[in-house]
Design a protein that fits this description.
146 residues; mainly alpha; two-stranded antiparallel ribbon; 6 helices; 5% strand; elongated
């Protein structure tokens, strides 16, 4: 299950990516439009800024704006940034592999085999779905085969 923080991060990024001409958007406007608590949104935007996904501008025409094109930002990238590894078991993680302490033999583990399929399907969807895909086609028209 993804965290509320990840859901808010994705919604904020989609709001910014939908801006015509990449215009900046005020935190208060994002918070109101996406129904995100402002203080929480400030923390999320700082994380996204540190990761190079968004930038902030000061002044009258200031606010937050996308640094990268929506076509280059995947759901998987954002979820890993906010929540960490996507794998349901630590022994399946590509970025934070850790052997399960209660497992005698990974190759023979029946649980690992099932959850490996889950992890592969999850990665396939999240690592190929971009912000632009969702903005252009709507999430309901994306192909999902699990």
């Amino acid at each position: 299950m993804i965290s509320q923080k990840s859901k808010y991060a994705l919604r904020a990024l989609l709001a910014l990516a939908a801006r015509p001409g990449g215009e900046p958007m005020l935190i208060s406007d994002i918070a109101e439009q996406e129904v995100i608590p402002r203080k929480f949104l400030e923390q999320i935007l700082l994380d996204l800024k540190r990761a190079g996904l968004v930038a902030s501008r000061r002044g009258k025409a200031g606010g937050y704006l996308m640094l990268r094109r929506a076509e280059t930002v995947t759901f998987g990238e954002v979820l890993r940034l906010i929540d960490g590894p996507l794998a349901p078991l630590p022994c399946l993680s590509k970025m934070a592999y850790r052997r399960c302490g209660d497992c005698a033999n990974e190759n023979a583990c029946k649980l690992r085999k099932v959850f490996a399929r889950v992890a592969d399907a999850t990665r396939d969807i999240l690592d190929t779905t971009t912000l632009a895909d969702v903005l252009q086609a709507g999430v309901t028209s994306l192909p999902v085969e699990i």
